[in-house]
Amino acid sequence: MRNFESMAALAAHLAGATGLMRAVEHSALEHCARLVEEAAKEEIGTYQTAIGPFDAWAPLADSTEAAKASAGYPADAPLLATGALRNSIGHEVEGSTAIIGSTDEKMIYHELGTSKMPPRPVMVPALLRNKEKILEILGEATFEGIVAGQIVGSERLKL
Questions:
Q1: What per-residue confidence (pLDDT) applies to 16?
Q2: Where are the alpha helices (DSSP H) in the chain?
Q3: Is the whole model's pTM more than 0.90, yes or no?
């Protein structure tokens, strides 16, 4: 913990912390984005429970299971066939923005559903399932950046 002799000393410390706070923000966002990315990847192949406004995933249709079996894909594993969809999930952090998503154009159909298949959302539920951890990471990193003048590493954040 750092002590300041006066309000002027605190103000000077905060004014000089701009560059450090950008680095702290980037580090914290990187940790959060990685956390959500990994959670989203874990959702692929496992029936998900309801969270927030999202219903639990509906079982795969018998015809879908039969088609997956004939192609040699795992049974009872929604959204998992070759692993390409799961592997398409990634993240980028630039400035004060973290983007977590998929490069697979089919992900949107799974997220929102179609007239022939129910939605099986992955991205927002992964975020919601990690909301408390994200708030903890951002809060602790901000506190450490302002008060202690240091970037909190992933080992400290228990990631």
A1: 67
A2: 7-16, 18-43, 62-70, 84-87, 107-112, 123-129, 131-143
A3: no
